[in-house]
Amino acid sequence: MNNDKCHVLDQIAKQNKRTRWCDIKMGDILEVKKDEVFPTDMLLLYAENDKEEPVDIIFVDTMNLDGETNLKPRTIASSQMDSL
Q1: 3-class state of residue 53 by DSSP
Q2: Which of 23, 47, 57, 58 has its CA 20 to 30 A from that of 79?
Q3: Which of the two residues, 81 and 43, has the higher pLDDT score?
């Protein structure tokens, strides 16, 4: 898993680059696309639907964590911050 690749924003070049999971550092901004693995220790800042419209809730498959096959709702962090 650590050698699998993910999309990381290169903040200097302002473009995504493919990086191994083991090379991710705290503070990196990642782009996770539909049906890709989403690690549990990541903070979700933004999501959009198939029509490229922003959404406040996404549904994730947690089968690798708890064995359950139903999707779990997760709230976008920025929408939670707005309510504080």
Answers
A1: coil
A2: 23
A3: 43
